[in-house]
Design a protein that fits this description.
single chain, alpha/beta, TIM Barrel, 2 domains, two-stranded antiparallel sheet, globular, lyase, Aldolase/citrate-lyase_domain, magnesium, Citrate_lyase_beta/mcl1/mcl2
């Protein structure tokens, strides 16, 4: 099964950008009713999202609604339900109870991509990741920085990122999706951020511009040296008998499994 790696936000009040987003190569397009839309444009954004959802049948679309407790939340849920949306992104996901409240309105069959971006959400990851309608976890790194008053620093966010990875794995979810890279002009920064996230166990990237899709995909690809090593491991196991050594190191079952995952992740 191909893991979806790139998730592109597009402001739902900018319908002229919808087709470009779909054609960007992103695995998933997120019609954004939340942060990318000014308060005075929320109603228009809902209308445009509903129209596009009715027209576009070939693309993988998700709707990011406005959060629980905001003035626009209930109207967003009404549009989602009327459009028959199969999956939404829930911002500031903080508890299983919050998820249940949303599902009570839109229906129990809808899947939720949980955007975890507060201290409360990180603390409650056991319940959030364990909810049966959670499709995957996404990390809202910038909002979490603001919530707990820390700088934009990898080390400061390491614990939270590790929690996302561990809870995803423990609950049988796909690897989580890392937060955005704010600089849309710096392709190398996107690649570096994705390589760092992959090293920690993340499996995808939130993107805010079509330009970021290609470098994000590149960043989640294993490097040439890693692929060559993985091929050596699998070849040695296929040809060998008993104990196997590759590059002077013993190869056991966990190492073989990792090598196979590396090769499987190559696009």
């Amino acid at each position: 099964m191909k893991i979806e790696r790139t998730f592109l936000f597009v402001p739902a009040d900018r319908p002229e950008r919808f087709s470009k987003a779909v054609g960007s190569g992103a695995d998933v397009v997120i019609l954004d009713l939340e942060d990318a839309v000014l308060p005075e444009h929320k109603g228009f954004a809902r209308e445009q999202a509903a129209s596009f959802l009715a027209e576009e049948k070939g693309a993988r679309l998700i709707v990011r609604i406005n959060g629980s407790g905001t003035p626009w939340h209930q109207d967003d849920l009404a549009v989602v339900r009327a459009a028959g949306v199969g999956e939404i992104m829930l911002p500031k996901t903080s508890s299983a109870r919050q998820i249940e409240t949303v599902l009570d309105t839109i229906g129990e069959s809808v899947e939720i991509l949980a955007l975890v971006e507060t201290a409360e959400g990180i603390v409650n990851l056991t319940d959030i990741a364990g909810h049966p309608r959670i499709s995957r976890l996404a990390f809202g790194s910038i909002d979490l920085q603001v919530d707990i008053a820390i700088p934009d620093d990898r080390e400061a966010l390491l614990f939270a990122r590790a929690q996302m990875v561990l809870h995803s794995r423990a609950r049988g979810l796909l690897p989580p999706i890392d937060g955005v890279t704010a600089d849309v002009q710096d392709d190398e920064a996107v690649i570096a951020d994705c390589r760092y996230a992959r090293k920690l166990g993340f499996g995808g990237k939130l993107c805010i511009h079509p330009r970021q899709i290609s470098p994000a995909q590149q960043g989640f690809e294993p490097g040439q040296a890693e692929v060559e090593w993985a091929r050596e491991v699998t070849a040695a196991v296929s040809a060998g008998q008993g104990a196997v050594s590759v590059r002077g190191k013993m190869v056991d079952a966990p190492v073989v499994e990792y090598a196979r995952r590396v090769l499987a992740s190559c696009s």
